[in-house]
Amino acid sequence: MKKRKFIIILGFLFMAAVLSSSFFKKAYEDDAVKYTEKIMKTCPHYNIDVTFNPETKSIAAFQEVTVVNNEVDPFKVLYFHLYPNAFKTSDTVPFPREDMSRAYPEGFVPGFINIKKVLVKSAEADYEIEDTILKINLNEPLKPKQKLTLTFEFEVQLPPSCGRFGYGKNTFNIANWYPILAVYDEKGWHVEPYYAIGDPFYSEVGLYQVNIKAPKGYTIAASGSLRQKREEGGKTIWSFSTGLVRDFAWIASSNFETAEANVGKTKVTSYYIKGKEEYGREALEFGKKAISCFSEHFGEYPYDDYNIVAADFYIGGMEYPNLVIIGDEFYCQGEFLEYVVVHETAHQWWYGLVGNNQIEEAWLDEALTEYSTLFYYEHYYGKKVGQSIYEKFILNPYRLYEASTAPGPILRHLSEYKDWGDYSATVYYRGAIMLKDLESRLSRHKFHEAIRYYFKQNLYKNATGEDFIKALNHVTGTDWTDYVYDWLKTNALLDKTA
Questions:
Q1: CA 175 to CA 441: how far, in whole Å?
Q2: Domain assignment of residue 31, yes or no
Q3: For the chain, what is the domain count?
Q4: Same domain assignment for residues 381 and 429
Q5: 360, 364, 366, 370 alpha-carbon torsion, rounded to 10°
Q6: Which of 107, 215, 218, 477 has the greatest CB tally within 10 Å of its CB?
Q7: Which of these, 120, 190, 184, lies nearest to 152 by C-alpha position?
Q8: In 10 A of CB 387, how many CB atoms?
């Protein structure tokens, strides 16, 4: 009888725990929806209609942007980045001199954006363009909480460049291509140039509706989700819309084939060049596993789509919201394809969902991304493989660099890095080594708890190193400020630091 009574009590306790868990999960989900809806009401809204002409390597577009002043002071001016103008001359292109032959295998030809018209409230705007910055002088200040709609008419000329912006043998890489609102924060407007080292971008989340008219026979891979595809006058119109994202990029090709699969509610699509199905399907599998791993351990991937896109891209890989560019040269035997796909997928969390100023604190997304990549390998293949990957891709390359060159500190402005070697060694390698050391001090359980807290507190925001430290302090009850900044601001030899 006592045993039966005990079992009944256990049953009630179990049911109570389940109901309590469901209640708190529902409450958390409701709060997340309200939080997202609030941001959607105040973030920039972009509506862009594009006509893509692969024959002339050009784009014609109309863009409408609704901007809300979320600050306490009125805006007398608005700034937009015009990144394509960095490609106007061989002196300003965002590539190191030694990379020019790989960036422009057929030789340099200019690329640019031509702003034909800017309207504010349907009236001609007073604006100035200096290199990659568009400054719009407002006739009336935009007061706090007020919104304003601007209209742009522009043309873009694509260069024969195998980077983020341009075209190659198989693909048109169309990223950082339209007027995007600059960030305004406690330091004011951020109007930095397009640096040749690192990822020189800093943006707020927004909502995008983009319609792309392209010739039949072309496939478009893009940020967001394809909502409609229709034929019109011998052309195909691809209509995309997004959730809250920091940018909108797209890749066009007449040589794409695709493979797709689902991870929960997310459709993962691999776009690969014809004839490389084996590796295209491998890329799909790597992307699926990465989405699953990071969603489980760091925070849920909230979007309906994720696209892995092979491209003429000499730099390796590059992250954009819901889309990553992977150099086609990696679609072959070897372990590099998996590493690059997983790394760029991790950026969907660190850069995408939690943003940061990649010009001033590049380590914040790159070090977390490298750490996440290393965790993926250990999660799926075990500690021995994880350690091997850590040594091969992080620890040994850093030790080699340290042995030949005096490395600078991790925390530097992009303009202060000597070259890609300097940037990679400190931001990627030393940054990841710092996080691995931190994990060993906290325990993996506590460190992941801190990462999840950092993710939750900064979802859709732009975080700082201080926010990362706050997450560590909150979870552990210990102040990690000195520890983190000792790593970030000094260049002590590794054996004296770790």
A1: 40
A2: yes
A3: 3
A4: yes
A5: 160
A6: 218
A7: 120
A8: 14
Residue type, 167: Y
- Chunk the chain into consecutive blocks of 10 residues (it has 498) and report each block's average pLDDT, rounded to whole numbers: 47 52 54 85 98 99 98 97 99 97 97 98 95 98 97 99 98 99 97 98 99 98 98 96 99 99 98 98 99 99 99 98 98 95 99 99 99 99 98 97 92 97 97 98 98 98 99 98 96 65
Q: Are residues 53 and 192 in the same domain?
A: yes
Measured in degrees and rounded to the nearest 5, phi and psi for residue 457 equal -70, -25
Measure the N-to-C terminal CA separation of the chain; round to a whole number of Å. Answer: 60
- Where b means 16+ CB within 10 Å and e means fewer, 119-153 reads ebeeeebebeeeebbbbbebeeebeeeeebebbbe
Phi then psi dihedrals of residue 250, to 5 deg: -150, 150
* Sign for the pseudo-dihedral over CA of 222, 224, 229, 235: negative
Assess if residue 50 is contained within a domain. Answer: yes
Alpha-carbon distances, residue 439 vs 379, 435, 447, 467 (angstroms):
15, 6, 6, 17
Boundaries of domain holding 51: 43-204
Strands (E), 274-420: 305-311, 317-320, 323-327, 355-356
Do 455 and 383 fall within a single domain?
yes
Tell me, yes or no, whether 283 lies in a domain: no
